[in-house]
Amino acid sequence: MKINRSFIKLAMVSLAFLTISSCSPSYNSVKKMQKLEEGVSSPRTKEEISEAIKKYEKRAMDLVSTEAQVGSWYKILGIRYLDEGLYGRALESFQKAVNYYPDNANLYYYLGVSAGYVAHSKAFDVSASSGRINTVQKEEYLRLSEAAYLQALTLNPLYYRAMYGIGVLYVFELPDESEKGIPYLERFLETQKKDTNAMFVLARAYYVSRDFEKAAALYEKIIQLSPNKEKVEEATRNLQTVLDAQHTN
Q1: Sequence-ordered list of residues with C-beta below 8 angstroms from that of 23, at least 6 positions apart, any chain
Q2: Residue 185 and residue 167 in contact, taking contact as beta carbons nearer than 8 Å
Q3: Containing H/E element for 119?
Q4: 93, 205, 207, 227: which could form a disulfide with 78 (CB 3.0–4.6 Å)?
């Protein structure tokens, strides 16, 4: 049976494309693609080498551009999932995005946020008749969240949103380690001086750490700022709790 050579060449090109699209661009994948599409094989003369460099360079830049676009799409997709409350999907998207942009602090921040939500949504053991929490799985996601925030701050030490995120994580999700959140929240408030939400979290951390004087001072500051009636009432109740604990001890 006579074989159509054009068909074979088309099949080979398609196979090469699938190979390249399934992983990050590499020298070998670029070289194979170039041989098929650009007709560059083994240049010998200076002219052939110069021409080959131009062709390889163009193909390499095309591949890099494609990879960068895919990384951006994963980031956008992750943010959309977060907005919709689809935290598991968001986490998967941001994990894929950081494979393309491993030095992007913003992506690690979003990864930390998503993992924190997933710690609750996926840790619930639906197979248990009593509806118990799978503490092991919950801990894994909380530690993933912690690692993501820390990486964001390693890449950008001034990233205040990551400071707040990890502060909340330590104080409310890992209460045995609430003291770890104090320096992050203090640094956060150095720039976000009127953020009463962060003040509440830090005041709680001070209270748990038995630093009643600092906790009371923060609650008094919240009351002075008077952000709204509910927050003033909450700060007033918490202040009384702190003062009672201070007098008892």
Answers
A1: 29
A2: yes
A3: helix 105-121
A4: 93
SS3 letters across 168-212: HHHHHHCHHHHHHHHHHHHHHHHHCCCCHHHHHHHHHHHHHCCCH
> Which residues are CB-contacts of 216 (< 8 A; sequence separation ≥ 6)?
239, 242, 243, 246
Q: Rounded to two decimals, what is the model's pTM? A: 0.72
The encoded tokens of residue 231 equal 């927050």
Strand partners for 124: 133
Query: Tens digit of pLDDT for each residue in 149-205?
Result: 999 999 999 999 999 999 999 999 998 999 999 999 999 999 999 999 999 999 999
Buried b / exposed e along 11-36 (16+ C-beta atoms within 10 A): eeeeebeeebeeeebeeebbbbbbeb
Asked whether the beta carbons of 242 and 212 are under 8 A apart, the reply is yes
In this predicted structure, the answer to whether residue 57 has a pLDDT above a threshold of 60 is yes
Please tell me the distance from the alpha carbon of residue 168 to that of residue 109, in angstroms, as a whole number. Answer: 13
- Asked whether 201 and 167 are in contact (CB, 8 A), the reply is yes
| pLDDT of 1 | 44
Other C-beta atoms within 10 Å of 228: how many?
10
Nearest-angstrom CA–CA distance, 92 and 206: 35
Handedness of CA 195, 197, 202, 203 (dihedral sign): positive
Contact 146, 169 (CB under 8 A): yes
